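Incident log, structure service

09:12 report received: a user says their structure output differs between two submissions of the same chain.
09:20 pulled the input from the user's history:
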Amino acid sequence: MVYDTIIGQERSIAILKRAWTGGKLAHAYLFDGIEGCGKRKTALALVQSVFCSDDKGEGCGRCPSCNKVATLQHPDLHLIEPDGAFIKIDQVRELQREMAFRPFEAPRKACIIDNADRLNPAAGNALLKTLEEPPGNALIILITANPGGVLPTIISRCQRLQFQAIPQPALEDYLIGQGTPPETAGIASALAGGSLKKALEVSSETVLQERQSLLQRMLSLSLDNIASLFAAAEELAADKEKAQEMLELITTLLRDMLFLRQGSGDISNRDLLPLLEQGAARFTAASLMTLIEQVATTRRALFRNVNTRLALEVMFMRLAEA
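09:34 re-ran on a clean worker, output below:
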């Protein structure tokens, strides 16, 4: 069955199953939760359940209809994603035209709007009309990791379903089941923050090696060598998405140093213990907490589209002077 491959979201899945089998499926849902926790996969599974000819009330995952939905080839399923930085009004207008037609094969039309927080103002306002007066019995699913970026008027017209961070043991078991060595699976699941997507990324050998290189670089930063600070900032600024990932890793490394400083062995990057102990000896607990806040400030700044390189230069100087 299509829901069986989704881990850690039993509550949300149970709600959707009850709604569908009980004839109480909402016309519009907002799925919100961290990146990589299974929102989009659940949205597709719900559409498969609705479109599937299996009378058990759950998508079989094998029939032509389920396969078409899984591959985004079903004529009655429409997916909208950002075109560049935003979802634009032309995309919403095209959706409205498509949703006005009768279904080709399925019992109803369905639409998934991924990254709904990136609807530009005009597109968001245009979507309101569709949410207020849904065509026929259409099913509309909005997905976001940033509900604060979605218009409150849109949220109020959807049934909101909050997806939880996936528990670390579930992530670890999944990775091991996919052939990841147990030690690597333990580290990756601890660093993933409840995201299966991130756990899979971190479990790669490249990312694991990057952590060690990043930690060594952090410990070698010095105000006596400003050129190295600026070089580190310039390197990360070249890829904003990569910069956000590195900031997350820096946060976990600083957190581990703080735990070691306070006598706790509950650390995520266990394989880097000697380097972490070196960092814990260098920084005070107060300075580590200040640095963690500085990294958080830098991450927020990058989300606001400030000068990436400048924000990173300031952060690295704070790390060097601590």
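09:41 both user submissions now match this output. Likely a transient worker issue. Closing.
09:42 reviewer note: The longest strand covers residues 139-144. The CA atoms of residues 113 and 142 lie 5 Å apart.
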